[in-house]
Amino acid sequence: MPELPEVETIARGVDARVRGDRIAEAWFGSHREPFKTPAARQAKGLEGRVILAVHRIGKHIVCELGSPAGGGALDESVSKANAQWIVHLGMTGRLLVTTPDAPVASHTHARLRLESGREVRFVDARRFGRLEYRDLNQTKAFAGAGLEPLTVGPEEFAALFRGRKLAIKAALLNQGLLTGVGNIYADESLFRAEIRPRKAAGRLTRTELERLRVALVEVLEHAIRLGGSSVSDYVDAAGVRGFFQLEHCVYQRTGEPCRRCGAAIRKVIVGGRSTHYCAVCQW
Question: Given this model, what pLDDT does residue 264 score?
Fold first, then answer.
C-alpha cells in the first residue's frame, strides 16, 4: 500500500499539473467497490468545478474544489474551497495525469477530463482504493484521524505512546495515533533510531522517543525527495517509479547483510505485519 511519501509525491505531482484547471467532464466505471460516494453523484458534483489545490492528508489525496461564479478570477485559497474530491489509493491504486489520447489502462475506474486538455485517471487493479466527493456546504471537510508525522512536536509525539503496552512497531502503524505511516517507513525509522520493533511503546524513554521522532521525519523526508518506494505497483502522477527502495536498510531485506554491521536482517511478525530489523543494531 502506498504510504506517506508515495501519497505526498503523487499529490504534489497532480497539484503541479492541474491546479487552476476546470473539470469539464467526469466519467466513472461500473464497479461499485472504489466509490465511497455513488459514481453518479461524484460526476454531478465534480463537473464544472475548478481544482484549487491538491494535497495530502495522511494516506489520502485531497483535491480542493471551487466554482468561481461566471468564470471569474480563480481564488486559490484552500479556505475558499466548497467541495472536495478525496482519493485513497488502497493497495494498488494510481492517480495519473495524462492526455486523452493516452492508452486507457485496464482497471481504470475514473477519468476527469479537464479544460486544459489533460485527464486525471484513477486506476486500481484490486479495487481496494476509494473515491469520495464532499460538498462542504453540507458536510465537514476531510481530516485525518491521527497526528501528522512530519510536523508533530516532541511533547505530542511522546504523549502518543505513554503507558501503551503494544509493540512500538504496531503503535507506529496505528493511524489513530500517527496518520500516514505504514510498514516500510516504520521498519526503516526504527532501524535508524536503533529500537527493536517488539519493544513496548510505553517502555521507551524520552530519549528513545525523540530519537525515533527525528528518525521518522528524516526517513519520510528523504523518501519524498526520492519519489517514494516502488516495491509493488506504485508510480507517481506521471507514471514514474520511485527510488527510495534502493536505500532500504531493513524492509524486505530478510537474510541480507545489515548495511551498518553486516549481521543478517531478520523478519518477524508484529501486530500481524511482517517486520524487518537488525538484532545487532536495534535493541
Answer: 98
Domain that holds residue 193: 154-277
Whether residue 111 is contained in a domain is answered as: yes
Both 87 and 208 in one domain: the answer is no
User: Within a domain: residue 283?
Assistant: no
3, 59, 166 from 86: Cα distances, Å: 16, 10, 31
The active-site residue, picked from 2, 34, 149, 197, is 2
Same domain, 77 and 185: no
The answer to the question of residue 144 being in a domain is no
Catalytic residue check, 103: no
What's 192's DSSP letter?
Answer: H
d(CA 2, CA 224): 12
Whole-number pLDDT of residue 97:
97
**Same domain for 202 and 115:** no
Q: Per residue in 134-163, pLDDT tens?
A: 999 999 999 988 999 999 999 999 999 999
Domain co-membership, 111 together with 189: no
Q: Is the Cβ–Cβ distance between 282 and 191 less than 8 Å?
A: yes
Please provide the DSSP assignment of 2-41 as one string.
--HHHHHHHHHHHHHHHTT-BEEEEEE-S-STTBSS-HHH
| 114-130: b (≥16 Cβ within 10 Å) or e | beeebbbbbbbeebebb
Per-residue model confidence (pLDDT) at position 1? 75
Q: Is 130 marked active-site?
A: no
- Return the C-alpha cell found at 114: 479537464
Asked if 2 is an active-site residue, the reply is: yes
59 is catalytic: yes
Is residue 160 domain-shared with residue 47, that is, in the same domain?
no
Task: Establish if 269 belongs to a structural domain.
Answer: yes
Q: Rounded distance, CA 156 to CA 147, Å?
A: 9
| Number of domains into which the chain is organized | 2
Q: Which of 59, 134, 196, 253 is catalytic?
A: 59
